[in-house]
Amino acid sequence: MIKGSNVALTALSEDVGTVIVSLGWVSPTGEGDADVSVLLLDDNGKVRSDGDFYFYNNPVAADGSVQLLGKTPTEDGNEDRICFDLTAVPPQVERIVVAASRYGGARFGELENVRVRLADAAGESLLRFTIADVDAVSAIIFGELYRRGEEWKFRAVGQGYDSGLAGLATDFGVDIEDDAAEVEAEAASAVEAEAASEMDAEAGSAVEAVEAADPVGGSGRPETVAPATAAATLEAVPAPRRPDVAEGEPAKRTVAARPRTAKKKVTLPKVTRKSLAENESWREARLFPVSVLKSDRDREMRATSVLLSVMAQVPEFGRRLTAAFGAPSGRTETFTEVSLPHGDTPRRPDGVIRVERAGKLWTALVETKTNGNSLKADQVQAYMDIAARRGYEAVITLSNDVALEGSPLVDVKIDGRRKHKVALWHLSWAEVAHQAQMLIRHEGVGNAAHAWLLQELLHYLQHENSGCHGFQNMGAAWVPVRNGIDDETLCQGDPRALEVVESWERLIRQVCLRMGGELGQKVLPVQRAKRGTDPGTRRALLADQLCLDGRLQAELRIEGTPGVLAVSADLRTGKLRTSVEIPAPEQGYPLTWVKRLVRRLAEAPADLHVETLVESETGGPRGTLERLRPEPADLLPKNTATPITGFRLSLFKGMGSTRGNAESGFIRSVDDAVHRFYTSVVVHLDRPAPRRAAVKETAGAG
């Protein structure tokens, strides 16, 4: 689409009762990001209340009409996906605005390939709109869904704001709480004051704290969007003059903060209650016991029944999983071991999910594998055929494997002559556990009973006998590739190297899920691919690089950390390296920097390697933390005029050799290395400026 154009959804697909809108961008550095937001507007172009504003603090509508699904890695970066159940949107809502904003003074001009994509309930992409010339704006309205009679249409907007999330929200009628912003501002000032006092003590001179927030202008809402060419520039909307500001008078500065979205929810207590057991041998009674599981069939049946029953009883959890598959929000029922006719022999899928809303039924078949067993192509194909004939909307496969974009776990044939489309989705057990962790440990659920059910589900999934442990096998190519690297016989173009690269990508994505669930923060693999790079081509290049230098490399972006966490597995030396690069402070003296860094790492491992990064190819001084603790000045370059750009912190660990997930396995060693580096090093580093810090808003003069 081009800027200003519009299209009726029914002209693109017959299955648009639920749609998935994906906002995407590519960061050249791998660290840039933005937050999505949605506003439901009435016929006056305003929200009916603050509850019509959905963002990181208010991600799900009570009626299921809107759900922010979070980020999903793609071949050229990450996409932030939003599920809209258009059948559940209240009749008073005329427009749905989809936007994104940057924070901390960042602008969209620092990102590439800024685009929006819309898909139907079957996951088929219907339209795409790429926004050009984003320049210096800090918020963008990507597009809007709006009613025309009985149907919904989509308009490609591409309208920029120079005042960020706060300006966008207030312009559409969202009330802003000043007191919350003042709390954030005071906290930020306290951090700055602490840093300034430490620098005073070290350097013997006072260093003034510098205000981190950028004063920005107000914002405006586009009344109409005129059609334009694809090359049209993105102009920032001028700030309207507030009615209480007289002509020529200076505007009063107010602090913008987060809208009121607080809602009491139940999460697990951080401190475990003391047990009433008489001795440690007593085992707590569990809702889902695992001791009776003897075979793979038993594990599959039990795991399917446990998961589907909790999905039906805990709406927050069930909706979080099914929304990503295009299911509407409504009454959910789940079934196991159903029998469906298929030729001479009936088929028995492991489960069925049915969601009813407004007399319409959404149905999905579920095929489950546990304990590392692989999905069977003929089995999945049969379920796709059954679903197409019976009018079901989806087939969901569930296993320990992690699906990669452009590399399906099973190949199925779609009969193009059939009018009814069936979507094929995959879910990893690691993702199921991640979503349960996020709800009960960080975000909360509606009541204590729901929290208890999720806790029991999580205990079951994490039990060693459940068979639901996520990705746990590097594949048959692992040992031949490792041996080929050792004896230098592995050649570029060897398909086994590509298999190992795909397994490595699956492992990294699972590490991200586990860390994100534990921390309650976004953890995503960094994609530094160029715009439009095909995932197959990118993996082929990585496979060739593996053959040349014998290394597997990845980067993880963890929300709230000062840098990207890099992981490198050297198959020649059998060493794992985890590292992070942190930028040099903008103020103060180099000696102060290194002393402060060493103090921050007081509880870090003694074998931590610290390297000074300088503006040269040769690199700066380096050493272990044990040697540097008494003499931090050893980190300073001998030439005092050499600019220091930052510091690299690294830990080295022996690599597991076997392909599995045992104690001696490669998968376990990578998981442990990342966990150890984060908990022993990264947590002690200075936090970056608050990611969603309060934005100081200046009312425009006209």
Level of helix content?
25-40%
Q: Determine the mean pLDDT.
A: 81
Beta strand %: 15-25%
Low-pLDDT sequence parts? 178-263, 690-702
C-alpha Rg (nearest Å): 27 Å
- Biggest β-sheet: count, sense, barrel? 7 strands, antiparallel
Strand order of the largest sheet: 18-19-20-21-24-22-23
Q: How would you summarize this macromolecular structure in one to three sentences?
A:
The chain has about 700 residues and is an alpha+beta fold. The protein is about 25% helix and about 25% strand. It has a 7-stranded antiparallel beta sheet with strand order 18-19-20-21-24-22-23. A 6-stranded antiparallel beta sheet has the order 1-11-10-7-3-4. The chain has a 5-stranded antiparallel beta sheet with strand order 5-6-2-8-9, with no helix packed on it.
Kindly describe this structure:
There is one protein chain. The protein is α+β, with helices and mostly antiparallel strands and 702 residues long. It contains 13 helices and 25 strands. The chain has helices spanning 164-171, 178-203, 296-313, 315-322, 377-390, 429-443, 448-462, 478-486, 495-519, 535-549, 590-600, 625-628, 666-680; strands spanning 6-8, 18-26, 35-41, 53-54, 66-74, 77-85, 95-101, 112-119, 125-130, 139-148, 151-161, 254-256, 331-336, 351-357, 360-368, 394-399, 423-428, 523-525, 551-558, 565-570, 575-583, 609-614, 622-624, 644-654, 695-697. The protein has a 7-stranded antiparallel β-sheet. The protein has a 6-stranded antiparallel β-sheet with strand order 1-11-10-7-3-4. The protein has a 5-stranded antiparallel β-sheet with strand order 5-6-2-8-9, with no helix packed on it. Helix 3 (296-313) packs antiparallel against helix 7 and helix 4 (315-322) crosses helix 6. The chain is globular and about 75 Å long.
